[in-house]
Please model this.
Amino acid sequence: MTREEWLRITAALGAGAMLPKGLMAQLLADDELKSSHFGKDFVWGTATAAYQIEGAWNVDGKGESIWDNFTHRKGGKKIKTRENGDVACDFYNRYESDIELMKQMNIPAFRFSVAWSRVLPEGTGRVNQKGIDFYNQVIDKCLKEGVEPWVTCYHWDLPQALQDKGGWMNREILDWFGEYVDLCAKSFGDRVKNWMVFNEPMAFTGGGYLIGLHAPGIFGFSSFLKAVHHATMCHGVGGEILKEQVKNGNIGTTFSCAPIDAKTDHPLDMKAAVRADVLLNRMFVEPILGLGYPSKDLPYLRKLEKHMKADDERNMKFDFDFIGVQNYTRTVAKYLGVVPIINGINEPSKKLGDVTDMKWEVYPEGIYRILKQFAAYEGIKNLYVTENGVAFPDTVENNEVHDTKRVQFFKDYLKNVLRAKREGVNVKGYFVWSFMDNFEWAEGYRPRFGIVHNDFNTQKRIIKDSGKWFTKFLNS
Ligand code: GAL
Model:
């Protein structure tokens, strides 16, 4: 069969049709990729997070968050560039023009998060009306411009007042989190229909409570295990409240995920890959689907039992409307007995493709593999790619940013999303990380993920070539 014949067949079959494995990747040329291939109900958007864009860290009654505290600690030493999110993209003051820019770029949906300490400065109790007002204004502006708001309840910025009581290590967080999500749902649920309880629990428990690279900067095993279990439980806590309070809501949560390959086919490397897969991809989603913690494949997780109460196993389960997958790269696992938890390490691939500013391999097939892996769970109804994107160095020339490599990245990854969709994976949307360059956590402002460039001195936004490409693609 010729390529042309296959093209005719695939065009006739349309999105969602089954194609033999491997075929899409060969078939679609760059100029053949169109947003219409994904179907007219497919949701397209860009994603951000409160701490990374808002700034105004102590303005209008906002309380301190663990990220404020962490970045200010020891003269900023915790962050590679000694920077912080005090001002970030100044979205707090510039949300109107930013949302207008989204409309100008024809971007249908905007994912952002609520800063817990802006609405509840002490974490619980006293509500900061000015914080509620801010998110109301953001939501109303979105709706006015025809940009659909997608809200994440928790994107890593716990109120410091709660961290002072143990944060995610303290089981009381089940109540604290419930109070916070209830406030969000009651305040915004009349207009916001799409919700995500968490952004990447593995990232904030692993980064914050195991290796200490992220806020609150704790290094330890018992802190990690407690944080994992309480975060797992809070999926149901938050999900239940949102389901109850938001009429016709689309309630989900998001996970960081990366396909894992063993470095060699030696059984020890293969086993290390299985354990890494549990830790990075399976540990949070499986208990939520009612499958319990996957401790059979990662015996270390048996230690979680110490932190579990009688009904926990049952209450960990929650029936989400969708799961958001967030994929950037892949992981290659190698056995190393001395390493705790997985007895292995993750290494860059030997077949390393292009490497990003985060030192991550560009591996477009990874998003296809992850979508297939998650779609294989019976309990997942719908999938969205709630984050995907890339940091490459950018230069501004005559008010333009020619980020050719980023454009290519999106094309290659999107072809793989389409490939999964055409093989029957129920993927219903895709969000670019990120709308604009922003504060990249422990890396500071150096890695630029935006499709809109930001000059952090002047706060001038410039639509990059990738942003222009995305607009054109959305119209195709
Ligand atoms: C994700 C995270 C985002 C962003 C992105 C790029 O893990 O949710 O906040 O930082 O990675 O590194």
User: Anything to note?
Assistant: DSSP finds 17 helices and 15 strands in the chain. The longest strand covers residues 148-154.
